[in-house]
Structure formats: C-alpha cells, structure tokens
Amino acid sequence: MRVPSFLCLALLVGTTASGGLPSARGQAVRSQPVLEKIVLVSRHGVRSPTQPVERLKEATGRDWPAWPVPPGQLTDHGRMDLALMGDFLGRHYRAAGLLPAAGCPRQADVVIWADAADDRTRQSGEIMARTVAGGCPVTSGSLPAGRHDPMFNALAGGAAILNRAETMRALSAVLRRDPRGPAAVRRALSTMQDVIAPGGCGSAAGPCLATAFAVDWGHGGPHLSAGPALAATSAENLLLEYLQDMPEDAIAWGRRDVPALLDDIMPAHAYASGLLRRLPAIAYPRGRVLASAILDLLDGKPVTLPDGTVIGGDARLVMFAGHDTTLDMLATIFGLDWQFADQPDRTAPDTTLGLELWRRPDGAPIVRAVIFHQGLAELRHALPLENTDRAMALRIAACPQGQDCPLPVVEKGIRAAIATHAPG
Asked: Known Gene3D superfamilies for this protein (predicted)?
C-alpha cells in the first residue's frame, strides 16, 4: 500500500528499537541507553462493521455476510488476536528489561486506560491488561460506558473545538490540487466500483463510487462525499471480513485472491482516513489532550486521568486502548508515518504505537517511536507473534537526522505545534 505523499510527515527507518539492548535494572556501568518507560497506544481488536448489514445492502445494492456480533462489537476471533498482541508486547518489554522477567510488576508500574465510548475499546483494555502483564493482577480503567473521553477525542470530550473555516480551507486546498487523489487511490476507487456496482456511475441504480473527492460540513465536522466515502468504508469492511477468517468465497462476492484485492482497494480507505484524521487542522485539536499527557509521562510528571485517577511519574508501562483514529491523530502530532509489507491497513486492528523513553549513559533522556502490528495471515489465522524483532522503529519529524530524539526537542516542538494548531 502506498501512503499519499502529502500525508507523509516522517520517514520510516531502521528495525527494532529495543531488542538486544541492556536491561534497565541492575547495571552499575553501562555504555548503551537504558529503557525507562513506554507509553503505548493501541487500536482495538477485529470488530464487525459499524453499520448493520441491512444498511450496507441499502447503500451498495449488495448482500453482505452476517456477523456473529452486533454492529461495531469485538468478535471472539478479534479477542483472540488481541490477546496474542498483548502477550507479545509483555514478552517484548520483559526482554527489554522494562518489566520484571519473573513475578509481577508493582501495581503502579503498569497502567491501562481505555476509551469508554464503545464496548470494543473497554474490552480491548481488559484484554491488554490481562495479557501484557502476563496474567498479573492489572486492571483497565475507563470512564463510565458511553462517556466521551477527552484523552481519545478532545473534540467530543469538550476539551477542544474544531475551527470550521480553517478546517474546510485546508481540506479544500488539498482537494483542489488533487480532487481524485493519487493514482493508487484512483485505481482503488475504480476497483471498488467494479467489485460493488459495475456500470453504476452510468446508471440511476448506482451507486457511483469512482467520483472526485468532495467535503461538506455537518454535525460539527467535515464529511466526505458519498461515493468515495462509501468506497473507503466498504474497503475496510472487506478487510474486516478477511481478518475475521470468513471463507474467501464469501468475501467480495466471489472475487479471487482476496489479499491481492485488499492491496488494491485499501488506498481508498487510507486516503479518506488521512483527509479526515491526519489533517493538522483536525488532528491537533482532537489529540491535544492525549499528546500532552504522553509528553508529561515521558518527562516523569504525574498525569490525572478524566476520572481523577493519577498515573504516577514513575509508571513504567502506560497503555491507552483506543481506535484507528487515535493512532492517526498521534501520527500527525508526533510527525510519524509507516506502512507494512504484509498488512495493507496502516492502522489495522491491534496495531500499537509506542513512545519509548531511554536514558543515555550521560543521563540525557531520548525518545524513540516504534510501531507493532500483525500481518494479514497472523490476524486471519490467529497466529502467535514469534518474531521478537518486529518492533518497527519510526523517525520523529522533530529529529530528521536519526531515530533517537532528545526529549526536550520532542517536547518543545510538539507543545509549540499544539499551541499553534489547537490554542486554548
């Protein structure tokens, strides 16, 4: 999958950020940086489409496969996949010396906080709490079910306001330059048209998906025009069917070679999500609360969660269980980008972003960004994550010369950008 160039804020670099480095404990003399803390932000597990299949049929004219759970809910398969990711993360950070190799961490050392907006994120937080800590008594906290949490969406949580004029001006500028998107996106829309409604653009029966992108404003935010938006959503739904391990002949109405099809159509989803999630005018207001909390945690400062719980400054592993939108907004704020050779969705279920705090021998704190993911086959077949070197290092835009970014540089750059793009 090729990520649109105008959305790329930083380049992919390197391989593992922490494999093979010395333990953070028990060293009198050392010559390498030591890992002191990790803040993780994860997407929930595999879910069903957020709309009922009846509504999907009404929109597309196609019959969609039934799911074993109501719309937008985690599946048992998704829970199993997420548990495998949590188990891997726990093993990874025990091997790195951040968590004890034997026994349980202190209760204050591991904190899990989940978005309360949906069952899938609360359940994902519970799964991560159980698996990352290796079965130790760690719990996942959240606001009461259904409450908007400003940590995950400061706009919905009332902690920020979207500037309509600035947002629409920025979106319009992008679409004026490239109203149909890059070549990969145009091909994706054409393929989705062929899959769902061949000839639909020339018939009143429709739907017509392969149209130019356009935006309007409603319900407090921007929305894409119906055709490309439907194509992007439908592409993600086909991906979810594959990850759920549905029979291949039941996916995409009998199209052969579903993985190749997903590679072809997912650029439409990536482009649409980038427009509405990675645009700075949207990402900074939406993510200002969480980004500020992450910076405070990396700096060893306590952070008060929306329910009044305080994460101590010496917590070693803090995880926020959120959505793909959470990953997208932080990618923009921290100046990160990534893509995977074995997974066409850059924010696929279970994908987990990490901001690691390391201490150099001279005492200087540095920040490293890493991303963890599962490939198509791993998610579809619920395969254990055995490769211990799968932490992909990312370059932070504030430090273009290397992956080790001094904490003061990260803090200064991001806090200044937040003040510029999301004042107040």
From this structure: Phosphoglycerate mutase-like
Residue 220 confidence (pLDDT) above 90: no
- How far are the Cα atoms of 77, 110, 265 from residue 249, in angstroms, in the given order? 19, 43, 18
Same domain, 10 and 125: yes
Residue 77, φ and ψ in degrees, nearest 5? -60, -40
Residue type, 379: L
Helix, strand, coil proportions of the chain in percent (round to 5)? 40, 15, 45
- 112 and 43 co-located in one domain: yes
Per residue in 44-92, pLDDT tens? 999 999 999 999 999 999 999 999 999 999 999 999 999 999 999 999 9
Across 120-149, average pLDDT: 96
DSSP bridge pairs for 69: none
pLDDT, average across residues 344-369: 97
Pair (147, 288) in one structural domain? yes
Q: Which of 278, 307, 326 is the last residue of a domain?
A: 278
183 and 150 both lie in a single domain: no
* Structure confidence at residue 4 as a pLDDT band (50, 70, 90): very low
**Residue burial 37-75, b: 16+ Cβ < 10 Å; e: rest:** bbbbbbbbbbbbbeeebeebeebbeeebeebebeebbbb
Distance CA 130, CA 138 (A): 7
Domain closes at, from 278, 296, 327: 278
Mean pLDDT value of segment 3-9 = 37
Q: CA-to-CA distance for 24 and 97, rounded, in angstroms?
A: 5
Among candidates 282, 301, 283, 300, which has minimal Cα distance to 291? 283
Residues 18, 132 within the same domain: yes
Range of the domain at 219: 164-278
Strand partners, 189: none
**Cα 368 to Cα 34: distance, rounded to the nearest angstrom:** 12
Amino acid 388: pLDDT: 64
